Amino acid sequence: QSTPVQSGALGSLPIAQGVPAGVAPPPYSPAAPPVCGQSPQYAGDAHAQSGGLPPDIRVAKNEWFDFFDRDRSNGLDRRELTSALVVTFRAQADGARQASIASAVDSVWAIFDLDRNGVVTRNEFSRPDGLADTIIANLHFA
How many alpha carbons fall within 13 Å on the CB side of residue 83? Predict the structure, then answer.
């Protein structure tokens, strides 16, 4: 049985099954920690370092950004962003979804890294219709 795929600004991400058309999906909740003993490629590096759950991006954009800005550079590089999306979209134990997310990040990177400096700065992240708004818009597909 295949997982439906929804194409959006973040590429083709598998969406949850069992939600009938026209019915709102369950509310977002922060991802659970990675399963002990598993180490998928992007299993939430920042999550593991922080020892806590990420803030809900829908209500705490800056806190979400800070949570995943591991090096405190005030910018998210591709690896930090990929790890953030893996945790946010609850894909820690699913290597195929991780690969899909990494591919989506590569595909849309130039849309969000406006100054082409290799990181999505806090301003690029927070601007109207920027990365934060795009992630929030895609959460209902998680």
Answer: 25
- Give the relative orientation of helices 95-112 and 78-88 as an angle to the nearest 10 degrees: 130
The rounded Cα 67 to chain-centroid distance in angstroms is 12
For residues 81 and 68, is the Cβ–Cβ distance under 8 A?
A: yes
List beta partners, residue 120: 76
Pinpoint the alpha helices (H) of 1-142.
Answer: 45-50, 61-68, 78-88, 95-112, 122-126, 131-138
What does the alpha-carbon distance between residue 81 and residue 25 come to, in Å, rounded to a whole number? 24
Q: What is the pTM of this model?
A: 0.67
Distance CA(85)–CA(83), nearest Å, equals 5
The DSSP output letter for 23 is S
Residues in CB range of 13: below 8 A, 6 or more apart: 5, 6, 89, 97, 100, 101, 104, 138, 141, 142
For residue 70, the SS3 value is coil
Q: Give pLDDT tens digits for 79-131.
A: 999 999 999 999 999 999 999 999 999 999 999 999 999 999 999 999 999 99
